[in-house]
Design brief:
The chain is of the alpha/beta class and 222 residues long. It has helices spanning 4-14, 25-37, 52-66, 80-89, 101-109, 121-129, 140-143, 145-151, 170-179, 193-197, 201-221, and strands at 16-20, 42-46, 71-75, 93-95, 113-115, 117-118, 134-137, 159-163, 183-186. It is built from eleven helices and nine strands. α2 (25-37) packs across α3 (52-66), α2 packs across α11 (201-221) and α4 runs parallel beside α5.
């Protein structure tokens, strides 16, 4: 298991955190392989279905065999019970859509990185006061890049990862990064239903490579 600093560094260096859930174990693995082939080394599998824990365990097993350097985050963690279950299943990182003090305690005790979801300055302040400095701003399509520009001076020690409505085009990605985000989370905009239904995993790999190139080019010129 990675320590908190290592895990945070992998996510922020990558600049994109793909996230998804699928009830089918075979497709869950296929998507992970497509992302990995494209250069992704950190993904978020979301706890949004009845097969989430079962498929996450399968994903951990596959990772250990064929993708050993892949960081596995588990998202949509809102209770300490789920936090403990997924830590036992092998999660490297916990991600939540909210700040929850009990989940925070579980992550702290287990020495695992937790990325809570925040929207307001008060939530961000509470998160930082609890000892967490990587925050998920959600939903991005409501907040927009200018929100980060407005709050960054208030929270100079916090890194912001934006999730929700981030587009795959270069203009949108650059807008978020230019505003001060360290990375963007992408779900259905990246891992589209068409890619999955038609099993266009090579196309997903190609899109991921393009996005990683956009992000690296931005970082080199920023």
């Amino acid at each position: 298991m990675h320590n908190r600093k290592q895990a945070a560094s992998i996510i922020t260096s990558q600049g994109i955190l793909p996230l998804y859930y699928h009830a089918d174990a075979e497709l869950t693995i296929a998507i992970a392989h497509a992302l990995y082939k494209g250069g992704i080394r950190a993904i978020e599998f979301t706890n949004r279905g009845e097969n989430a824990l079962q498929n996450f365990k399968i994903l951990v097993s596959e990772r250990n065999c064929t993708m050993p350097d892949l960081l596995l985050c588990i998202g949509t963690i809102t209770t300490p019970q789920d936090a403990n279950l997924f830590i036992e299943a092998g999660a490297d990182v916990l991600i939540s859509p909210v700040f929850d003090a009990d989940v925070s305690d579980v992550a702290y005790i287990n020495k695992i990185l937790w990325i809570p979801g925040c929207m307001t300055p008060t939530e961000i302040h509470i998160t930082y006061s609890a000892g967490w400095s990587l925050v998920k701003l959600f939903p991005g399509n409501v907040l927009q890049p200018h929100y980060i520009q407005a709050i960054r001076p208030l929270f100079p020690s916090i890194d912001f990862l934006v999730t929700g409505g981030v587009e795959t085009d270069a203009e949108n990605i650059r807008a978020w990064l230019k505003a001060g985000a360290v990375g963007v989370g992408m779900g259905s905009k990246l891992i589209t239903s068409a890619f999955i239904q038609e099993k266009k995993f090579d196309a997903l790999t190609s899109l991921v490579q393009d996005i990683l190139y956009i992000i690296q080019q931005f970082k080199q010129t920023a």
